[in-house]
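Repro:
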Amino acid sequence: MTDALKRLSDEGVAIWLDDLSRDRLNSGNLAELVQSKHVVGVTTNPTIFQKAIGGGSTAYEGQLKDLAVRKVSTDEAVRMITTSDVRDAADVLRPVYDASNGRDGRVSIEVDPRLAHETAPTVAEAKQLWWLVDRPNVFIKIPATKAGLPAISAVLGKGISVNVTLIFSLERYHAVMDAYLTGLEQAKAAGLDLSGIESVASFFVSRVDTEIDKRLEKIGGEARELRSKAGLANARLAYQAYEEVFGSADGSRQGSDRWKALEAAGAKAQRPLWASTGVKDPALPDTLYVTELVAPGTVNTMPEGTLDATDDHGVVTGDTITVNYADAKAVMDAIAAAGVDYDDVVQVLEDEGVEKFEQSWNELLDTVTASLASFAGEK
């Protein structure tokens, strides 16, 4: 074991677990991770719920039987099951939430991914999930699609905290920060307390490397030397953009005038969250997207394997982001010069991300449909 997880926390990185299941809750494992591994938040997504509910666990049988007796629809059953897990996880993390004045101790639940390209239904679903979970320390996850941007503002404007997910491009990240400020301005106009509204912007890392590395390999030659560099460079430039809007931890950058007006009214900065931090290439260090993305005011949500690897042999040396801005820009410039179309890469990744979550959701619906039918037939 190392002290890497504690060092991460000391450096201003909030450690979140990218996983949730009823088995994890019932066994006390989540509470143990909070106590022993500095975990201060949890993220979920449709794929995580599909694995938890569709993976053969018996932990959901009692609730499924009750839902079958009540003859609820599959969509409603899934909503009740997932919000139940998130509510229980929020209760486990409530002491963290209270101790951090609402900054951490949060659990994220995503809107139905089939709504990713529809604004009004996304807003309605977010409001429903917020009401169903009924805990102040929940984040409603909304994808950073073009239709998602106005939904993000509208939901924040109602005082609902939001985790913006599926961010791949720097341009879209700028739009996400703008949507956050717009939402805060709407909340302020409505007379809401801005200090109670939180948000994170989930910037995906490893998937960027996967897609760009595939293209660099196809180009061949010297382009191959740029493999496995884009994910970190892209994320580091995102943090630079964050500092331009919200200011820097050391005070050297004050942030935009628009933000300063909201901050004076009690608003909190929208933190960058590093998602997709499990390495996809086994040739890479398994802690790469953790130890190389350290800076104050960030969140790193890790699969349990990455969390364990960091705890076991991670080496945290301090800030590895702001000291590498110039190198990050040089890497992205070199990748563009090699012939990789960045705009096409990030659009492909967004489309694939939405498609994968929708596929997982449909698989989850199929699993629950079969379970409800089975239990409905029992005498």
